[in-house]
Amino acid sequence: MSESGRQELIEEPTPTPGTGQVLVRVHASSLNARDLFMLDGRYPVPPGRVPISDAAGVVEAVGPGVSRFAVGDRVVNSFQPLWFGGPQRKPGRLYHTDIDGWLAEYVAIDEQRLVPMPEHLDFTEAATLPCAAVTAWSALAGVGPGDTVLVQGSGGVSLFALQLARAAGARVIATTSSEKKAARLRELGAGDVINYVDTSEWGAEARKLTDGQGADVIVEVGGAGTIAQSIAAVAYRGTISLVGHVAHDTTGMNLLDFTYSGATLRAIGGGSRSDLEDMNRVITAHRLRPVIDRVFPFKEALDAAAYMESGSHFGKVVISH
Ligand SMILES: NC(=O)c1ccc[n+]([C@@H]2O[C@H](COP(=O)([O-])OP(=O)(O)OC[C@H]3O[C@@H](n4cnc5c(N)ncnc54)[C@H](OP(=O)(O)O)[C@@H]3O)[C@@H](O)[C@H]2O)c1
């Protein structure tokens, strides 16, 4: 975005990496729901801020004192640039909102904010990992073989949650609004798919599909509009991992029902560099490949955002730099 708040391409000299920094030639970046809010002004950001939080590229030069990377290394950034691991005591600074993001050809950045890309992935695939995949990873903490995970819809976070839950040996129940997407969710490993438009009481349906037990973990991307169904679907003493707010109505939450569910409601806020590294080990071991819906050229980044806003995507929308 320019000083005037308009979104336009700006030419700047290629930065020189300082002490502890590397110069990354960015090959791909990916969009998340939060980018859309910032690009259309729903979430104000200072003028001149470079958008986008997630990217992958190649180290093209290293500054003095760099020890983690060498020229030619393929890297992906951590979503939270200053959260390296351990418990986070206060909200972190984020790309696009607090510091310049990745919609650029070159970025000079502290080497600590990057990790190596999983070897089997290409740049467009790796660029989808920092926000959506790590959020799904955090939402699934503790999931193992024999557990049932319920994922809502077929957006970026939900598809990663589906793939990572299957890799952990869990059974997955997915919801979606479209029969076409239901078939693709089954191909990705969902054992059962419920159409949440045809079956508005999908919580009861999910409970029926689990012989009355309910889902051990629910990856809640709908928010206030879906939480009542999630409470109906969650296993006694299960967990609802609250990730997002894509469902537009605001039915809200009945606290009495929630108390009887015995469940835990856990707010998820991305993850640390250490979470990204742990997740990448699992993605590598299982040869998981992120689901990419469409790749747009760099100069069509705003079209990519408009396409994602339309809601027709299945998985991630990516920009090739
Ligand atoms: N807390 C965090 O750290 C964090 C991190 C990343 C994202 N988020 C938030 O998580 C949410 C999802 O992000 P995303 O990037 O995955 O978004 P996205 O790719 O835009 O997901 C959109 C999908 O949500 C599904 N959906 C819409 N209404 C629904 C409903 N009533 N019930 C079930 N599914 C519904 C639709 O799936 P179908 O087309 O299949 O119906 C739609 O394709 C957003 O609110 C985002 O801001 C939070």
Describe the SSE topology.
Layout: E1 21-30, H1 33-39, E2 54-62, E3 74-77, E4 106-110, E5 114-116, H2 123-126, H3 129-139, E6 148-152, H4 156-167, E7 171-176, H5 179-187, E8 192-195, H6 202-209, E9 215-220, H7 227-233, E10 234-242, H8 255-261, E11 264-267, H9 273-285, E12 292-297, H10 301-310, E13 316-320
Parallel strand pairs: 6-7, 6-9, 7-8, 9-10, 10-11, 12-13
Antiparallel strand pairs: 1-2, 1-4, 1-13, 2-3, 3-5
Helix pairs in contact: 1-10, 3-4, 6-7
The structure holds NADP nicotinamide-adenine-dinucleotide phosphate (NAP).
NADP nicotinamide-adenine-dinucleotide phosphate (NAP) binds at residues 32-34, 131-132, 135, 152-158, 175-178, 181, 196, 221-222, 225-226, 243-247, 268-270, 311.
Tell me, briefly, the overall form. globular
Q: What would you report as the Rg, rounded to the nearest angstrom?
A: 20 Å
CATH topology term of the largest domain: Quinone Oxidoreductase, Chain A, domain 1
User: What about the largest sheet?
Assistant: 7 strands, mixed
What string, H for helix and E for strand, traces the elements in order?
EHEEEEHHEHEHEHEHEHEHEHE
User: Average pLDDT, to the nearest integer?
Assistant: 94
Count of helical stretches: 10
Please estimate the helix content. 25-40%
Which structural class fits the helix and strand makeup?
alpha/beta
**CATH-scheme architecture of the largest domain:** Alpha-Beta Complex
The total number of structural domains is 2
Count of extended strands? 13
Give the termini separation.
17 Å
Query: What are the distinct ligands in this entry?
Result: NADP nicotinamide-adenine-dinucleotide phosphate
CATH superfamily of the largest domain: Medium-chain alcohol dehydrogenases, catalytic domain
